[in-house]
Amino acid sequence: MQQPYFDAKTLQRVKDLPLVIKTLAQGFLHGIHTSQQRGVGIEFSQFRAYEPGDELSKIDWKLFARSDKYFVREAERESDVNVWLVIDCSESMLQQSIPTKHDAKAQTPDLGRWHKLDYARYLAASISYLAQNQGDSVGLLALSGEQPLQIPAYSGSKHWQKILLSLTKLNANGRVPETKQVLKYLHSMQENSLVIVISDFHQDNNELLSLTSQLKHSKTEVIAFHLDSDDEINFPYQGMVQFQDLESGKNLTVAAKDVRESYLEKKAQSNKQLTTQLVKNNINYFKANIDLPLDENLVDFLRVRTRGNRR
Asked: CATH number of the domain at 8-33+79-307, out of 3.40.50.720, 1.10.579.10, 3.30.465.10, 3.40.50.410?
């Protein structure tokens, strides 16, 4: 059956965020085989030989029927996991692709393209729903030019509603602070945690790379969601174009045809450097195009984690 993907236009028409996220989750989870499914914090089950004293209920009888030997299925998770969502709320996260001709002809042309911070909201809300639905605790850390916002990691539906409310109130401001300014927030995130950093990774002094490396711990898994857009990937501009640095406010006017090739080369080089550094720091990397349907990216993400692979 064709997977029902939801684009930005569809999602932004629905104002009830909890309803949107639950609908999304039910939809994209159909794209993952139930027998292989594992949530945000779940690890693969393992089998070991039966030992005297093991509970009979833990014996895998199907495996016994195939092997004529007794095996015990280990617990699928050692303990509940703290899932931390770290969101880049710097002003560069307001970047969005220019409207297409199709968008311009629409009755509501403002719908259909969203900026990175909006995408990050929905992505974080969806992952938090999966986590709290399987009993994990969920926390939030939002980083911008203002005082960092931290919501402690707790479980339960009421706490999830608090996370959603905080996500809707996030605003882009300034730049991501240096790691030394957020160190006091990191200690609680380095114990039995899955930390998901959602950012465009635009940085002047490797602030975000420094942050992700600081988050990495022997009991912590870190995933970097690198947000990109069609316009950044393809550079579709023509004629004279004025670009603005959203964080510094500086403007630059160029002839698109004169800089396109150089831009694409430098972007490819920058992406390679980013992925190389993240892998070196043992950070799991996942790239997400904000102009693709959100649940399409989520299905890909969950499939990768289901297979135990890394991108």
From this structure: 3.40.50.410
Looking at residues 121-136, what average pLDDT do you find? 85
User: Of 194, 144, 166, 161, which Cα lies nearest the Cα of 42?
Assistant: 194
Q: What are 53-84's pLDDT values in tens digits?
A: 677 777 777 777 777 777 776 554 445 688 99
- The phi and psi torsions of 135 (rounded to 5 degrees) equal 95, 5
Angle between the 17-29 and 157-168 helix axes, to the nearest 10 degrees?
Answer: 110
Sequence-ordered strand ranges (E) for 89-136 = none
The residues, any chain, with a CB within 8 Å of residue 4's CB and separated by 6 or more, are 27, 295
Q: What tokens appear for 209 in the block? A: 């790379």
Pairwise CA distance, residues 299 & 303, whole Å: 6
Give CA 140 to chain center in angstroms. 12
| 163: its two tokens | 């996370």
Q: Give tens-digit pLDDT for 244-278.
A: 887 778 888 999 999 999 999 999 999 999 999 99
Domain ranges in the chain with CATH number 3.40.50.410:
8-33+79-307
Please say whether the dihedral angle defined by the alpha carbons of residues 16, 18, 20 and 23, taken in this order, is positive or negative. negative
Which of the 8 DSSP states describes residue 217?
Answer: B
